[in-house]
Specification:
There is one protein chain. The chain is of the alpha+beta class and 184 residues long. 58% of the residues lie in helices and 16% in strands.
Length: 184
């Protein structure tokens, strides 16, 4: 029964916010009806047109930059994927190169290895992959990896006298550095 009485008579604290809200809404409705004074003078049509033209030019420039950036990223992704794929086949190239250096009396076997190596070289060339020239060239740390140094009076300064492992390049990206011996 006590609960019923509480529900019938709401607490006075609850009534106060309702009565306070009524004057605020009346003031708000009066201020909404009254016209507001303009804070900034209206812009003329020429100025609006100039602003719209500037926004358009900025948007066009942003789109052009986006298009160029995505094209560059796409080319970079293609080059990187190609480089990783070629790098996976380089051990096969090395093994075929070693097989060609071995002496054999079986001419059919030798011819088969040569044909396989030629096919692999053609495939690499088709992908735009080139062998980095090394033997007799001047040492370039951006393309060669010097693993040995030898004093040789006949060879010039920083000249590569032996290639241990061929290096490969695709465009400007080095896939694998040439492993070389450098003189002097």
């Amino acid at each position: 029964m006590a609960k019923e009485k509480k529900n019938e008579n709401p607490a006075p604290e609850q009534e106060a916010p309702e009565t306070e809200a009524a004057p605020e809404t009346a003031e708000a409705s009066e201020s909404a009806e009254a016209p507001k004074a303009p804070e900034q003078p209206a812009k003329d049509k020429g100025q609006l047109l100039a602003e719209a033209a500037e926004k358009y030019l900025r948007l066009a420039a942003e789109y052009d930059n986006y298009r160029k950036r995505t094209a560059k990223e796409k080319e970079s992704a293609w080059t990187e994927a190609k480089a990783q794929t070629v790098a996976a086949f380089l051990p096969v190239y090395d093994n075929l190169e070693r097989a060609l250096k071995q002496e054999t009396t079986d001419e059919a076997y030798k011819k088969g290895v040569e044909m396989t190596m030629k096919g692999l070289q053609d495939a690499l060339t088709g992908l735009g992959v080139e062998v980095i020239p090394a033997l007799g060239e001047t040492f370039d740390p951006n393309r060669h990896n010097a693993v040995m140094h030898v004093d040789d009076g006949e060879a010039g300064e920083n000249t590569i006298v032996e290639v241990f492992q061929q290096g490969f390049i695709c465009g400007e990206k080095v896939i694998r550095f040439s492993m070389v011996k450098v003189a002097n």
